[in-house]
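Case 596 in the screening queue. Each case pairs one protein sequence with one candidate compound; here the compound is iron/sulfur cluster. For every case the pipeline is the same: read the inputs, emit a complex structure as tokens, and attach any notable structural observations.

Predict complex for case 596.
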Amino acid sequence: MTREGQNEGVRETFAWRAKRFRHRGVTWGTVVCAEWNGVPGAGTGVLGCGGPLGSLRVVPVVADSSVRARSGGHAPKRCGACAKWRTMRVSGGLPCSPVHGAAVRWEAGIVLALSMGSERSRHGAARTGCGGAAREDGTMTTTPDFSPELIRRYDRRLPRYTSYPTAPHFSMDVDEERLAALVGDRGAADRPLSLYVHVPFCRSLCWYCGCATVISKSEEQRRSYMRLLRREIEHKAGLVDTEREVIQVHFGGGTPSDLPPDVLREIGEVLHSTFRVAPHAEEAIEIDPRDLTREHVRAMREAGFRRASIGVQDTQPRVQAAINRVQPFALVEQAFRWLREEGFESVNVDLIYGLPAQTEASIRETIQEVLTLSPSRLAVYGYAHVPGMRPAQRLLERYGIPGSEERLAMLGVIVGTLTDAGYEHIGMDHYARPDDELSVALREGTLQRNFQGYSTRGGADILGFGMSAISSIGRAYVAAPRTLDDWAQAVERDAFPAERWMVLSEDDLMRRRIIESIMCVGRPALDEVSEEFGVDPFETFARELEGLGDLEEDGLIERTPGGFRVTPRGRFLVRHVAARFDAWLEDDGRRYSAAI
Ligand code: SF4
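Case 596 output:
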């Protein structure tokens, strides 16, 4: 993009922000130049404000007449003392005094505009005192004012904790006899089941992809996969008590929506005739809009699916070209229309931030475009750059991968834009409309976390089918082979496809309970650990609890009689809080994604 094009972009951004913040009682800001983090042309800003302090946001704005016109006619001025500072009146009226400092940057020749939220936004945001705005229920509405030094300290790769212990710690040493005993445990009759089916096929590789995929356009390969899936389902159904109620069915991939329509119907029929799927079960499928037809959507509905997640990732053509996933927005709109017309109750969107060529402005545009479709939920994942494990990701490096500060700024845009639009921030990466069952579960403290992310269906054993699918049965995790051939061979000899596994110790189970609770409701659930495991958790985890001092000092947690709670500010770094209870954590950055 040319400099002129960039300038136009920031002008638009500023105009939008100024308009948006004016109704919140925006006052004015002063930026004072100084060396900042050794970056030439950068400075430290001090915000003066006469109104109650809310969130601080900073955007670069070109100082030309069109900006002055849109910002109320106040021209930026150069400081007579140091010749390095700029003042811009965004809107005025209140007496001001400097009450808060914030780190900001600008490029030579570009003036910073400061915009501030008021104490309480129209959605009920209240002042936190940490530079971020929090709702009464503790969810964040904007980015907190993390200093560059704090960002550097927390710039670490950590697990996403969709399981504990995490998959890299599973062992290759599978004990088939013990596994058969665990799967066939008749004492588990009162535990419901959750079924996960992995369909690995995709027509082309998105370069950011971290999933277990097989790149193929072959319909025959998909049909023979279906034949093996049917055999695996029948075999596993012979091992478990099929009278157990199934409360969740999830198809992931890969691209499950790209199975031939008759195959989709068939697999739905096999699952429903083999297991006792509850009428209220959550039946969800992941969708790629690029090869979707109306016939596929009808077949999915007939197979029992009522919830769909559409992989959008980013709507901006420049980003789509960089990640090798060109997907015009019209295809997404068409998929939404078909899914709703065919009776899907909930249509969700998956996005990714931290991708090459993304900026705060482009992320905002993506979200605003997606919001025109009113999805029930959004999952906005941070891009996990692990080229040591996913060599194709190296192709993205020529575009530049956003660093932690940029990622945090993008996250602030995401949280701010979505919460302003009325969505609840459910947890690390999920957002839902207030009437969605995830939001209700968050308010009622019943939110769960499993391999699919946040969920309302907890306490179930997960039975996985297909290449690389992970099952969670009682106290064991079992991962199927990660190659098609190895998985197919296991299915053909009627074995439980198991390449890696782990049987959790009592200590693992307690820590799993604590970590899941931190990730879901921001508390360690020590009372429940005490009740369930008959230990004094304050004694058992004394070392971990004592070691949280730095998190407390940084405002990420607050001590409570029940141990602690994660603050609204801490929700941005909740993986760091959970990781303090992870006894398996190795400092192996290649395996995990950046925690910011
Ligand atoms: S469609 Fe999804 S699973 Fe397939 S390559 Fe792209 S990101 Fe990976």
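Case 596 observations:
- The CA atoms of residues 246 and 278 lie 6 Å apart.
- The chain is about 30% helix and 25% strand.
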